Model the fold of this input.
Amino acid sequence: MASTNGHVARSRTIEVPLQHEQVLEVVCEDLPGNPVELTDIFQQEGVGLLYYRLLAFEYYRQSKYDESIKVLRAGLNAANGASQAQPRQKLPLLILLATLSIQLAKMSVDATQKQTYMTEAVQLINDADRINNQYEPTFIIKGILYLQRGDLNEAFRSFTMTLEKLPSCVPALIGKGRIQYTRKQYRQALKTYQSALSYSTGNEYNVEIRLGIGLCYHQLGMNAEAKAAFKRCLQLNPSKSNPISLILLAIMELNESKDRELGIVHQETSLKQGLQHMQMAHAANKKDPVVLNMLANHFFLTKDFAKSVKCATRSYNISRQNQVKAEAAYQVARAQHQMQQFDDAFKHYSEALQLNPDHILSQFGIGQIYLKKGEIDKSIQYFDKVYATEPRCIEALKVLGSLYALAGKKEKAMECLVKVLSEIKDDAMLLIEVAQLSEQGDEKRTLKAYEQAVELYKRQATENGDESHIMPEVLNNIAAMYHMRGDLDDAEHHYGLAVKECERQMSQADTDDSTKQRLAGFELTISYNLGRLCEDKGDLDKAVEIYKNIINGNPGYADAHLRLGAIEQNKGHVTDAIEHYKDVFDSNANNADAWTMIGQAQMSMNEKICKRSFEKVLKDCDKNDLYTHVALGNYHSNTARELKGDDKRAARAEAYKLATGFFSQTLKRDPYNVYAANGIAITLAERGHINEAKEIFNQVRESAVNNPSIWINLAHVHVELGQFKQAAVMYENASKKYFDNKDTNVLLCIAKMHFMVGKADKNAEEMLLALSYSEQAYEADPSDKTILYDIALVHQTYAQLISDLPKDQRTTEQMRKAITGLEASKSGFQTLLDVSPEEHVHYDRKIVEQRQRHGESLRTQIERKLADQVQFEEERKQRTEESRKKREEEHRRRDEEIQERREQEELDRKRMEDERQRIMEKVRQENLLLASQEVGESDEEEKQKKKKRKKDLDDGIINDDEEMEDADAEAPRRPRKRKEKDPSEKKEPKRPKRRKSEDLDADKPKRRVRTKQIIESEDEEDEALSPPTNPTEVEASHQSRIRDDDDDEDGEE
Amino acid sequence: MPTTYIPTIVKDDAHREGIWCVAWAPSSDLVLTGSLDNTVKCWNGTTGDEKHILEGHETGIISVDTNKQGTLAVSTSIDSNIRVWDLENDGKLLHSINAPPGQAWTAKCSPDGAFVASGSHSGNLNIYKIEDGSQASSLSTKNQFIMSTAYSSDGKYLACGADNGTIYVFDVEANHLIHTLQGHALAVRTLSFARDNRTLISGSDDKRIHIFDVQHGKVAAALTGHNGWVLSVASNPDTSKQQIASSSSDKKIKIWDMGLHQAIETHEVHTDQVWGIAWNVEGTKLVSASDDKSVKWFASSGSS
Done:
């Protein structure tokens, strides 16, 4: 936007007066390429400076800046050489030259060259100032210079100074307007431009002013006015179409085309016009960077990426403004991004950001590229920036949410996505993402999100009139969620849907091969899941069939082999199971899962080689495998436990150390590993650090409430601490809750607890409980002979207990039970002794023999005591009988008394009732009499009333109701009188009667019940009290015990 | 057409402890249950009323069976004690056979009521004469603990199942082993011959029920569906129905169609493992016994 000094050459020729009245006609359209031809003539002819200026200006108009400069320099030379020339005449030449320098500086790309032009301009202005520092054009050009330097204040000052002197100086007004515009003082700018317009005469300025006006209008949101202004620019200069106004118009129109509020028709016309104007702009100036950027954008939108890059690159090369350049770089990057030239795109995005750090779209792009490269953290950084500057950009928030999810920051991800969800309700993909995010933690939310997504798909489908097609992945995930929750039917339904959807997509003609492959793989997953479902439903045959099908098609599908193995292992075919596991190695010799399963299977067969399998996992497959660490820890822990006795103390300690090592390694990798913590606690407990172990178990229990082994271990710890009752409760709960009461070990633990408590408290009932639990264990696993030993031992101990109890605390029944128990115990021990000597047994045959002998002697003891007991009980029975009789007698007596009293009461009542009825009757008659008499005899009435009351009192009956009625009678009499005539009069005698009878009815049975209860409870008390407990006696009777406890406990274990 | 069996009579707390076995005596229409509380109880098969308590065992009752007519009952307890009861005489104790320790586990009565067969820890199948309690014979297997036995209803075959899953079938008359059936790998806790005397049904800790063709010694089918040990199987005496009833530690009772090899109904009425299941002789009713101390009856929708 050049501004020049005042004059505008309208003629297309310049007539230069030469010497001797000659005139040189210079045709503007046909200026010589080298101006020296003309300036030489000018010089020789001593032409006035004005003509140099005109010529230079003409060159300038034609953008031949160098030539123009040459002409001006020649003019200045001529002026310097000619003595008659006044210095002031040089001013216009100097100013024009300065303008040109500034123009060139503006256009030059090279910074040093730019600098040279600028210094030149400064020099020229200084020259001009030396000649005359009040020359207005100098102020203007100074203003422009400052403007070019970016020194708005100085520029503003220069323009204002100019305007003080020449208020109608259009260039100064334009400069001022521009500064105001840049300062975002749009209203003031508009005013300035408008006054410029009123002063302006030529079209040249008109365009520039109107552009300014249009921009101001645009900034002020007056789009219609802005467009009118731009269009006016075009009208003003139809031949030389103005690229800037065209492009501004295009931008505005294209923006309008994006504005949905305007309606589709308006949008389309805007788009069409915008594109037209854009093309016109391009036609007008093929080198305008803004136009080129617009064009690049257009090509991008029409997916002509190569052209887009070309335009943008050109714009980038031409443009000298950072913002425009950044936009160009962005356009290049975006097109390359779309063409998947990620490295180039990245380079250009970065460039754009270097040129303009606030270029949001480039930040977005670069974030996407980082995402593509897998540098999630960096990507997050960029999207964070985008979101920070544009908090309303849901798109960025969505991406950010996904990125956080990828980076594993689930909470942040959820936070973002939930925010997005609150904005957009109908984004099924988003719902699915939310569902996936919450899959690990929040089952309910997951299912809800999935269900919403499915619902949404369905709705969209019905709106569009299609069948709903939900991604099979989603269906599978939903099914899996149901599956894990235990809703097996729902799971099956959804797996079925997923398979159907897979097949539908496969059968579609337009499905390409890679998609088909993906779908096939996916179908495999679903059918594997279905296999798991069949297993969970107990339909093992179908599960096996499914797994075999999978393997037929895909022999390398490791999980199917593993499941086949697991099914066999559950059936007890451990070797077959291992074969299945080994099948995995055909496709992957280092499959950690397969080795782990093999190790586990070997462990279940009690084979020591399991250690090798586990170690193989750590060595060759995955040295961080948590499961294997725990398994090895357990292995060493078990080994340690088997190393009993003092001579193996060192080996035992070593094994525990190894076990602890593995558990610690696990915890190092996963500090929340319940199994490892449990393992460590076990080793602690085994080595006697009971309290520490308890601490850990308690902690673990809190984090893994449903882990049965923790409960069992805690119970074990309570045992070690001697808290048998608590332990028993814990064992029983665990047995019921987790083992359906059929885990023999747990049952035996419970039995042992009751045994210990029974022994400690001399409690025969506890001992019987121990027996019951041992027998349950034996029923569950009759092949375990040690249980037989336990049962026999419990029988014997029960007998011992009964034998040791004082007479008054045992019964002959119990003693007989003890004897039959001893029988059973004897046969049990015999079974154990009969086991062939070759067979390895978990009990000491010698101890069994001792036990059996002890049982025999115990039996003779008890049989001897039995006679005493019978006698004792006989006596006691007599005693009880006597006291019972006595009691009965007493009760009978008491009953009689009660009966008598009751009869008496009845009589009293009857008498009272009769009396009462008599009185009532009398009152009624009196009332009737009163009613028939006149009101005047009220005194009489009063007397009678009083009398009646007295009588009532004499009878000793105090009836609230009646008193109330009497109180009423004291009150105004008239209404009462009327009342007495009413049927209510009948109420009077009736009411007390009913009450009385009610009381009687209620009282009678009640009292009877009560007495009965008393009698009963007394009976009970008597029974409970006799025989009376005597603690000292209990103590004394146990001195004869000659039993070693250690022995018993060993047997129980 | 599968028949639907509807829960009818419920006897909660039928015993003081868990109930481990049940049998239905044909002619006397008595249901017998044996429990950890050391007693065998006899119930009216139609009304569910308690008739007799058979006392005498000193440890938990692990099996109870009757002869074909239902005149005799045989029960065994953990301590290898076998007791024979006279059901026609209010359950009078006829004999108490004290098998050598460890020589008796679950026992079955031969259809003619002359013998009792019981497995042992040592792997022998011991046969005792009911008449005098003496041991008639001992059939030996491979030293694995024998957990279950079954007579065919014609008395020709005697089968027994070991704790390693092997099933042995003996020819009773010839007194020798005719088949060793493989298929299960975990303990076989229950066996039942179908009325055709050729089909043997087994239930195992591997959660499966196998149907064997005894003549050919082959597995005809494996039924899966239980989610715990199969504790009891019983084939429906009504051969036209082709049904098996099973009970499991998964607390469920299932009715299977032998032809379709499919479960046709499942009952979840017990709150603890169901140790025993038995049919009435017409095959119209079922009775189950569980560790939850209850005995429960089921009747087909067509029967009274």
